Structures are given as structure tokens and as C-alpha cells.
Amino acid sequence: MSDPPAHVGLIPDGMRRWAQSNGTTLADSYLRGAHKVVEILGILQRHEVRTVTVYNLSRANLGRRDDELDAVYQASTRFFRDLIPAHFDPGVCGVRLHGDRSLLPPSYVEAAELAETAMRGNDFHINILAAYDAVDEMRAAHRRAATSGGDIADAFEITEVDLVIRSTPEPLLSGFLPLQSQYAQLRFLDTPLNDLQPEHIDDVIADYRHLPQLRGR
Predict the structure, then answer these.
(1) Mean pLDDT within 13-35
(2) If DSSP codes are grouped into helix, strand and coil, which group holds residue 165?
(3) Are strands 51-55 and 93-98 parallel, antiparallel or unpaired?
(4) Global pTM value
(5) Distance in Å from the first CA to the final CA of the chain
(6) What distance in Å separates the CA atoms of residue 35 and residue 30, rounded to the nearest whole number?
(7) 118, burial (CB in 10 Å: exposed 0-12, middle 13-18, buried 19+)
(8) Is 122 exposed, middle or buried (0-12, 13-18, 19+ CB in 10 A)?
């Protein structure tokens, strides 16, 4: 049996469809989704995953309707301000926001930066991608490599991903960390994020551990 994945990518998706099919508001659906993401993070931490990168918003997502974005921002602000501090030890868990902060509302950025300041642990890392674009990430890595004289492959702030979980069956990465995910195992779930149970994540991790991780070799 293989070791558990060191780095899991999480693409929480399907909240708009879940709101429609369950007769609730976008705000309620996204807030429930924020709680579910925290639950999944806790399960992954118990499975000895060291890093989880959560895809909150791509830069392209910022073109959505204002009401949809407001629902995401409200839930995300609650996630940073209340949910993360309530469920994770700040001496164990670290939080980092990645993306173009200038494109996000000040209240969102303020909540994220408060979480970054408060959560400074090194044993369990939570990366949040918001206003993220892979080309921007590559350009930033190139600038860091040019400044330091190092290799661009070593200049990325987010490390290689072992497993990507998306909470919809569509087989798409939607621009999620394309370089870091080149050898990741991909899992697309039939159960919407807001209906996921702990055993769904347990099963995904068990499946991962039973498959050889060859990394192209």
C-alpha cells in the first residue's frame, strides 16, 4: 500500500446547481459549501495529508454575475474569519492565499490576510486559490527565478500535487495548477460537494493508496 498523498488539490464545484435542485439561495449553498470544505480539510488532515490547495475562484470566474460572486465572497470571508480558526490549531495549520489580490474585494482580502497572520503552523498547509490564473503564476515564478538566478521549476510557491478531487463528474481541471498537477491522480465525484460524507473522502484516499504512484516512470 502506498503512502497517503502529501498534497491534495480540491476543486469544490456544483454549488449553483445544488441551490437550484434544493430550492435554496446561492448564499446558503455557498455557505454550506464552506462548511463542507472545512470538514474535508479535517478529514484529509487526519489522513496525514500535509498540504491541501483549494480552488476558490479562477480569474475567469470573476466574470460571473454579481449575485453569484457576492455569495462566494460572503462564504469565503466566513471561511477565513470564523471556520478555519474554529477548526484548526494555529500552531499546526498554516493558511496562504494565492492569486491576484487586487481583483478581490477588500473584505475578502482582509479576512484572508487575518487568517494568514493567525494561522502560522508548518504541519498542515492550506492554500486558497482566488483570482488565480496559471499564466500569472508562471510569470511570477519566472520573475522570481530571474531575480534569484535559480531554476523556474524551483520558483513556484505551490508544490507538486498528488491527488486532485473535484466535486462534480465533469472531467475538467479548469486551469487548476496545471504544472503541479501533471502527475496527479484525478478523481471526479458524482456526489455534489454539499452532500459529501466523510466516507466519500475516506474511499478516495483508500483508492489512492492502493494504486502505484509511478510519476511517469
Answers:
(1) 96
(2) strand
(3) unpaired
(4) 0.95
(5) 18
(6) 9
(7) middle
(8) exposed
